[in-house]
């Protein structure tokens, strides 16, 4: 396994900040907004009331009930509480699933660009990650033809991440249905990572493959409160799917971490059941930032960005920069470019190598407009 490149870059940027460097960081995958007050208060009340002991391994009943209602309200999905479990963040829900369903000899299809941890988690389970390349021309989305060509007798699972980290692409209902048509009858599982489902723009709507009746027994849905409610540090993720798979993940979790944080579970109940207007307010702000970054980055020679449809990342191609000499060094790939931007111009980005796209950079626009303006100005100067 390799360490997370996003964590590595963020740590390096923080170390440079501690040295007094004026770093503009666009590397972290977390909202810059605070956790909503009503969520914080629920956590404080949990402490004051003594709700600080072990809970049921797979989560407290009231949180499972809130998750079931969230799926019904926001995603058009019907689950029973015994088809849901709560984990220590979205990463654990995904890792539990890979460990439960995959083993040596299995292949897991992962469209690229992909979130950095998908292939490493597959390797942790003993299986083999198989990258399915996509292109900027297709909006970084896998086509049915791409999927068909990648399937082998060893294919055990497809990972579908929509809205996508890092590209911001969102598969439409028609696109999801076309992909699922390829899988029908093949006995291939689908792990649908829907962490950014509530952060989408314009008329775009996220569509879960679990809504397709013929695929319901083959789809596992992963989500969490981290991005939607700015609760990254609270570490609450949740998983839903066929009961036998959830039971297997529950068993794995019981022997690794046991239950998620009790206090954070109470806060998550408040987040899911509370006033959802804060979600829309923040989504609108992200949309303004997205629009700014899209136009500003495309104005820089050598940079080409697609318009993200969801999440809070933009994933520009820097094909026009790779091969050039900057700062006295030839830029061989995105890792060189990211290092140059950080060390010479104090802008923290994440190289696309980590996402299976060595000609791209991931920039998070979970930062103020002022910070984004400064970052783009520095990048423009760096590439001149």
Automatic annotation (TrEMBL):
Keywords: Aminotransferase, Pyridoxal phosphate, Transferase. Belongs to the class-I pyridoxal-phosphate-dependent aminotransferase family. It is an enzyme of class 2 (transferase). This is Aminotransferase. The lineage of its organism: Bacteria, Pseudomonadati, Chlorobiota, Chlorobiia, Chlorobiales. It comes from Chlorobium luteolum (strain DSM 273 / BCRC 81028 / 2530). Transmembrane segments: none annotated. Its cofactor is pyridoxal 5'-phosphate. It comes from the Bacteria. GO terms for biological process: amino acid metabolic process. GO terms for molecular function: pyridoxal phosphate binding; transaminase activity. CDD domains: AAT_like. Its EC number is 2.6.1.-. It holds the Pfam family Aminotran_1_2. Residues 21-379 form the Aminotransferase class I/classII large domain.
């Amino acid at each position: 396994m390799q360490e997370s490149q996003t964590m590595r870059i963020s740590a390096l940027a923080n170390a440079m900040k501690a040295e007094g460097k004026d770093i503009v960081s666009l590397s972290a995958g977390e909202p810059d907004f605070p956790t909503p007050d009503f969520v914080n208060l629920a956590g404080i009340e949990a402490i004051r009331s003594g709700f600080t002991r072990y809970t049921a391994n797979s989560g407290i009943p009231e949180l499972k009930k809130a998750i079931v209602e969230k799926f019904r309200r926001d995603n058009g999905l019907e689950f029973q509480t015994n088809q849901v479990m709560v984990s220590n963040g979205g990463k654990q829900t995904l890792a539990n699933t890979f460990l439960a369903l995959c083993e040596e000899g299995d292949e897991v299809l992962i469209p690229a660009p992909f979130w950095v941890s998908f292939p490493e988690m597959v390797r942790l389970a003993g299986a083999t990650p198989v990258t399915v390349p996509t292109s900027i021309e297709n909006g970084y989305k896998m086509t049915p033809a791409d999927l068909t060509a990648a399937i082998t007798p060893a294919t055990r699972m497809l990972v579908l991440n929509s809205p996508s980290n890092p590209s911001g692409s969102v598969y439409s209902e028609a696109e999801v249905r076309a992909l699922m048509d390829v899988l029908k009858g093949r006995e291939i599982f689908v792990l649908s990572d829907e962490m950014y489902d509530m952060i989408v723009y314009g008329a775009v709507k996220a569509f879960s493959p679990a809504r397709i009746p013929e695929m319901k027994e083959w789809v596992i849905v992963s989500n969490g409160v981290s991005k939607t409610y700015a609760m990254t540090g609270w570490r609450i993720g949740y998983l839903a799917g066929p009961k036998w798979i959830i039971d297997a993940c529950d068993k794995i979790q019981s022997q690794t971490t046991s239950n998620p944080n009790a206090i954070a579970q109470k806060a998550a109940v408040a987040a899911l059941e509370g006033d959802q207007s804060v979600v829309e307010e923040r989504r609108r702000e992200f949309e303004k930032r997205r629009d700014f970054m899209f136009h500003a980055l495309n104005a820089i020679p050598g940079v080409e960005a697609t318009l993200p449809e969801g999440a809070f990342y933009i994933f520009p191609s820097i094909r026009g920069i790779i091969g050039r000499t900057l700062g006295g060094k030839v830029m061989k790939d995105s890792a060189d470019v990211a290092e140059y931007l950080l060390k010479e111009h104090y802008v923290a980005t994440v190289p696309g190598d980590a996402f299976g796209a060595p000609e791209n950079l991931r920039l998070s626009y979970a930062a103020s407009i002022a910070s984004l303006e400064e970052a783009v100005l520095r990048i423009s100067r760096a590439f001149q």
